């Protein structure tokens, strides 16, 4: 497989760095703004799969859309291998868009029902300033790369299953040899047997093409399986960033512990450990977030300081980052292997 | 020990839909029972027939474009033999149903307390005042804080989890013997899902409600149900206790479904997937085992029609079940 990855030695440093990102939306009617993302920083290494997890309203999709330049960036910097993506305009923005490609949750909405699979995959190639000489050959190799075959190329989307359509979307995203693939709930709508195949495909793409992936999902099990490192978001902020192994076996933030405790385990009752109590309530509105630590209204370890002071995301022993004043004192429960 | 009569007894349920291409069978030979206070899981992927089964029992399938055969006995009455008028009387009183999307069951123009009170008055001869009081009472029971003032809220003023609680309240206000819950937590956040599943367990235990929980999520079944029925392509392929299914599945599809789920301690290892091979389209069903085109253990004998084999405490639709030592959800210690 050649042509998908630029040759040459890999430069040092992270591929993507997101620094103090804020994404704001004006609320219609009210003279207020909603801070969907409020000071989020993380890095994605070259060839790394970075998982982003959180419940609705956490701001995961807004982070993805900001990186794609599809959401308004109020503050902060997004740097892709030295290029400030957040500052690009016009022709420059268009030129750099090919470097980050996205796969969405709804595999049907992303495909034009009137286009054949071949046309859909070739479309991004055609939109380029200098289309490749052998576009047909590239399309054929892409369709095989995602586990379909050339007989699928002349079919229309409605004759494909959900899993096949998502493979076509991945092939199209790969057509421009992006450096970063952003997957926003890309497997959430699929049956588990089909979802497993797409997860395997993403793992093989990372291993064989060295592509970096931002993998966003509400499913902790899937994210922890696939990602090298995972960021846990709550109400527009990062609560914890750690390796997938450390995050699930030894969570350092009470919200991560709560997510692990709530995850339904497909194990027999004889093999299920006692779990920490479930947290009550639901995620508060992002339009009116709690002061201090945003998780404090649902946290079972809450103390006075949590309302007064916003905990910064800071390094703790073990290599992770945690936004909790009491991370060193708390003994939190993780998942049993 | 004389067992009491199950709250719901479904026998030989068949559902087919009339399409431009002719009659398409969605459910075939489905039989199961749910006892008082028991939660039974109906599990399968899209197209397995689990929702069609639920809608058929509730009498909610369109009369002109579907055919339903078999029986569904609730408190000794066959729901499938009732006229639409009779059905309207028992639906909500003897049987309730909750759905994935609560807004499909709630009217956006009416206060939630009034909607629940209306349900009460549809089935019982009580005053408006008593019905309103009953609505507040049930809202409190499903965990709505400050139920008296919240009963005056409109559906859009509530969060997704609160709406789901309201729908459960509405389905349970007349204390039906049977509750059918079709993917009730699929659209909810995981911390809220855990709360709602806990609520269903408590209500079922306290009121003796028989619950049929329809889901695609084996984790939800493991946490909530005592027995499981795995459906594939319109048929039940395995029925047994939840622990037995997860420890030692005997149908290759049950085992494959378990292996598809990411598991702790297997970080980045390739997951098992069930490829949809050519000829395994739902429209083209093999005459033998319907899972045959996707099965890793298929043999010549599988091309013959497969009855659901009764093994006492378990039923399996696989002629090779006793020859296969299939993996479950935990590593089995060799004996």
Structural features, described:
The complex is a heterodimer of chains A (337) and B (335). Chain A has 10 helices and 12 strands. The two termini of chain A are 37 Å apart. Chain A has 2 domains: 16-99 and 178-322, P-loop containing nucleotide triphosphate hydrolases (Rossmann fold); 114-177, no CATH class. With 337 residues, chain A is an alpha/beta fold. Chain B has 335 residues and is α/β, with parallel strands linked by helices. Chain B has 2 domains: 8-225, Rossmann fold, CATH 3.40.50.300; 232-323, no CATH class. Helices cover 29% and strands 22% of the residues of chain B. In chain B, the strands form 2 sheets. An 8-stranded mixed β-sheet of chain B has the order 6-7-8-3-9-10-12-11, sandwiched between helices. A 4-stranded antiparallel β-sheet of chain B has the order 2-1-4-5, with helices on one face. In chain B, a hairpin with a 2-residue loop joins strand 4 (66-74) and strand 5. In chain B, helix 6 packs parallel to helix 7. The model of chain B has no long low-confidence stretch (mean pLDDT 92). Chains A and B meet through helix 6, helix 7, helix 8 and helix 9 of A and helix 6, helix 7, helix 8, helix 9 and helix 10 of B.
Average pLDDT score of chain A: 92
Overall geometric form of chain A: globular
Largest sheet of chain B: 8 strands, mixed
Q: Tell me the radius of gyration of chain A.
A: 21 Å
CATH topology of the largest domain in chain A: Rossmann fold
Structural class of chain A: alpha/beta
CATH architecture of the largest domain in chain A: 3-Layer(aba) Sandwich
How many domains make up the coordinates of chain B?
A: 2
Query: What is the number of domains of chain A?
Result: 2
H and E string of chain B: EEEHEEHEHHHHEHEHEEHHEE
Total DSSP helices of chain A: 10
The major pleated sheet of chain A works out as: 8 strands, mixed
By DSSP, the count of extended strands of chain A is 12
């Amino acid at each position: 497989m050649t042509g998908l990855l630029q040759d040459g030695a890999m430069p040092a440093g992270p591929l993507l760095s997101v620094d103090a990102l804020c994404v704001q939306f004006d609320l219609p009617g009210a003279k207020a703004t909603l801070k969907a993302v409020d000071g989020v920083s993380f890095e994605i290494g070259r060839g790394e799969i970075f998982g982003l997890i959180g419940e609705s309203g956490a701001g995961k999709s807004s982070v993805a859309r900001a990186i794609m330049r599809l959401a308004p960036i109020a503050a902060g910097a997004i740097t892709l291998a030295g290029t400030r993506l957040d500052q690009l305009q016009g022709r420059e923005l268009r030129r750099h868009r090919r470097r980050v490609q996205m796969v969405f949750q709804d595999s049907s909405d992303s495909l034009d029902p009137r286009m054949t699979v071949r046309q859909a995959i070739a479309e991004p190639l055609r939109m380029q300033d200098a289309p490749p000489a052998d576009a047909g050959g590239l399309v054929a190799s892409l369709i095989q790369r995602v586990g379909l075959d050339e007989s699928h190329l002349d079919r229309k989307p409605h004759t494909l299953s959900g899993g096949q359509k998502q493979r076509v979307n991945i092939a199209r995203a790969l057509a421009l040899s992006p450096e970063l693939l952003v997957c926003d709930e890309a497997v959430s709508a699929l049956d588990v047997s089909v979802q497993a195949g797409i997860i395997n495909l993403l793992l093989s793409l990372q291993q064989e093409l060295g592509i970096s992936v931002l993998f966003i999902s509400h499913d902790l099990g899937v994210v922890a399986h696939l990602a090298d490192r995972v960021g846990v978001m709550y109400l527009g902020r990062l609560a914890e960033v750690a390796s997938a192994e450390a995050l699930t076996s030894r969570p350092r933030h009470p919200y991560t512990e709560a997510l692990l405790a709530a995850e339904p385990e497909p194990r027999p009752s004889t093999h299920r450990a006692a779990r920490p109590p479930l947290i009550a309530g639901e995620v508060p509105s992002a339009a009116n977030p709690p002061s201090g630590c945003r998780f404090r209204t649902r946290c079972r370890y809450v103390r006075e300081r949590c309302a007064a002071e916003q905990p910064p995301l800071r390094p703790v022993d073990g290599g992770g980052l945690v936004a909790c004043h009491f991370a060193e004192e708390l003994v939190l429960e993780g998942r049993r292997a | 020990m004389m067992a009491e009569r199950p709250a719901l007894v479904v026998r030989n349920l068949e559902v087919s839909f009339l399409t431009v291409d002719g009659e398409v069978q969605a459910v075939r030979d489905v039989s199961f029972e749910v006892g008082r206070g028991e939660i039974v899981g109906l599990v399968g992927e899209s197209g397995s027939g689990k929702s069609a089964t639920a809608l058929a029992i509730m009498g909610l399938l369109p009369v002109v474009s579907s055919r339903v055969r078999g029986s569904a006995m609730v408190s000794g009455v066959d729901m499938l033999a009732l006229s639409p008028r009779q059905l309207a009387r028992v639906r909500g009183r003897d049987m309730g149903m909750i759905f994935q999307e609560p807004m499909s069951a709630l009217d956006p123009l009416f206060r939630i307390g009034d909607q629940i009170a209306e349900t009460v008055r549809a089935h019982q001869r009580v005053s408006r005042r008593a019905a309103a009081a009953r609505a507040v009472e049930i809202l409190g029971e499903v965990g709505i804080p400050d139920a008296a003032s919240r009963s005056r809220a409109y559906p859009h003023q509530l969060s997704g989890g609160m709406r789901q609680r309201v729908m459960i309240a509405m389905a349970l206000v007349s204390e039906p013997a049977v509750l059918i819950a079709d993917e009730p937590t699929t659209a909810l956040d995981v911390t809220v899902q855990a709360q709602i599943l806990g609520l269903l367990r408590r209500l079922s235990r306290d009121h003796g409600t028989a619950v049929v929980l329809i889901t695609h999520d084996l984790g939800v079944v493991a946490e909530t149900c005592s027995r499981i029925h795995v459906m594939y392509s319109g048929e039940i392929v395995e029925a047994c206790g939840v622990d037995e299914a997860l420890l030692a599945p005997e149908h290759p599809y049950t085992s494959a479904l378990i292996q598809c789920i990411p598991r702790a301690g297997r970080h980045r290892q390739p997951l098992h997937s069930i490829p949809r091979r050519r000829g395994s389209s739902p429209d083209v069903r093999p005459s033998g085992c319907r899972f045959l085109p996707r099965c890793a253990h298929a043999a010549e004998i599988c091309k013959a029609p497969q009855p659901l084999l009764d093994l006492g405490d378990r039923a399996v639709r696989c002629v090779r079940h006793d020859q296969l030592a299939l993996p479950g959800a935990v590593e089995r210690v060799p004996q």
